[in-house]
Each structure stands twice: as C-alpha cells, then as structure tokens.
Specification:
The chain has 234 residues and is of the alpha/beta class. The chain has helices spanning 2-20, 24-30, 39-48, 60-68, 70-75, 88-93, 95-98, 113-116, 125-141, 166-182, 214-232; strands at residues 54-58, 78-82, 106-110, 145-149, 186-188. It has a five-stranded parallel β-sheet with strand order 2-1-3-4-5, sandwiched between helices.
C-alpha cells in the first residue's frame, strides 16, 4: 500500500512539474532582455580580439549618451551597452554577453531608475540593489573593475507621474555608495552635479526631467573619464 501511495505521489508531482514547465522556446523568441540588440557588435569584437577598455551598461541614459557623444566613446575605447527602458534584472541577464565576454578592464554600471519607475513591474529597494550587487560580483569574478554610478536625479517620471521617486533614489544611492566602499569598488556620484533644488534634473540638463541632454552629458563625461583614468591609471 505504501509503495502504491509513493508511486502515485511521484506521478502526481511529475505531472504538476510538467504542467508548470515554461515554454523556453517561446521565452527565447520574446527575448525579454533584448540579447539580440548587441549580438552582432559583440561577435565582431570577439572575433577581432580588439577589446574595449571600458563597457558602459545601462538603459536609455547610456544609450543616449553614445548617440549624443559618440566621440567620447570612440576616442577613449569605450563601448556603450545601454538599452532604452531596461531595468536591472534585464541588464543582469545580458551582463555576460554584453560585458564579460568583451573582456573590458572596467565596467560602468548606471542602472535602477527604470526599476523605480516600474517599467517591468514593482521593484523594492532590495530587489534593485540585489541586481546591482550581482552585476558587480560577476564583474569582479572576471577581473573587471567596477564603477557604480549613482542614479541620476528625477523628481517625477513623465510616463508614470506621481511616484515621488526622490526618496527611493536617495536610498539606493546611499546603498550604492556604501556597497562600493565596503567592497573596494568605485562609486561615481553624478547625482550631485546634476541635481536642482527639488532633487530633480533641471531643464538646462534635460528636456524631460529624466534623460540628460547634451549639456547634461557634458557634465557627466569628464567626471566619468577622470574616474576611469584614476582606477585604470591610464
């Protein structure tokens, strides 16, 4: 009787597991993390064995930076791997192909604002910081130096108004700074030089209060380059 019962339970559990098994081929077609975006460029770099000194991973702020200041990236042997709208779990999924496999000396991680905006659903401070920590750990495990950038100032998200993100941004930036110090990473504060009196991004540096314009990137670029040169001693 016990043997029959055990067999029945095993069959039931097997059926439940099979019923819950996701369709991985369908998930791959969806490409939630947009792995295909930089696939061709990554392949070209790997085949040439001419690797960047630094990879910048992020969202539309990073993607827009490359578009606004292409010479900043090209002249310094930097590669941008930003994808508009992305959140930290999506960046974590593509961290190996878009960062580690390019064998940079350092990575600049600018992430978290879209998590706060809820682009892929609610994200707590802990969820966001866990993903940032995971990316930093992946980098260190592959001998890549880590530059953790503060989340940039935002007073309100135009596509999701009323979230009041100022407090959450401050909490995450404090965590990033403390985590970088405790783990011998480098913290880059771009929040302070860009903020206005409301802890937002002023019109002179942004057209929508979230994404820097060229004037904003011109503030960010020398501070970032100085930090990179210091840690790489270029």
């Amino acid at each position: 009787m016990k043997k029959i019962l055990a067999t029945s339970i095993f069959i039931l559990l097997s059926n439940l597991l099979c019923a819950q098994k996701p369709d991985y081929s369908e998930l791959m077609k969806q490409d939630w993390a947009n792995l295909k975006k930089y696939n061709a460029e990554n392949k070209k770099i790997i085949e040439s064995q001419i690797y960047p000194d630094v990879v910048f991973i992020g969202n539309s702020i990073t993607e827009g930076w490359v578009a606004s200041q292409p010479e900043f990236f090209k002249n310094n042997n930097y590669e941008g791997r930003g994808i508009g709208g992305q959140t930290t779990p999506q960046m974590l999924i593509r961290f190996i192909p878009d960062v580690v496999n390019l064998q940079p000396k350092a990575v600049v991680i600018l992430a978290g604002t879209n998590d706060i905006a809820g682009n892929t659903g609610f994200s707590s401070v802990e969820m966001i910081t866990n993903n940032i920590q995971a990316m930093a750990q992946l980098a260190r495990a592959n001998n890549i130096k880590v530059i953790l950038v503060s989340i940039l100032p935002v007073y309100d998200y135009p596509w999701r108004p009323g979230l009041k993100p100022v407090k959450k941004i401050a909490q995450i930036n404090k965590w990033i700074k403390d985590y970088a110090r405790k783990n011998a990473h480098t913290y880059l504060d771009l929040f302070t030089p860009l903020k206005d009196k409301n802890q937002g991004l002023p019109k002179k540096y942004s057209d929508d209060g979230v994404h820097p314009n060229l004037a904003g990137y011109r503030i960010m670029a020398p501070l970032t380059k100085e930090t990179i040169e210091r840690i790489l001693q270029l």
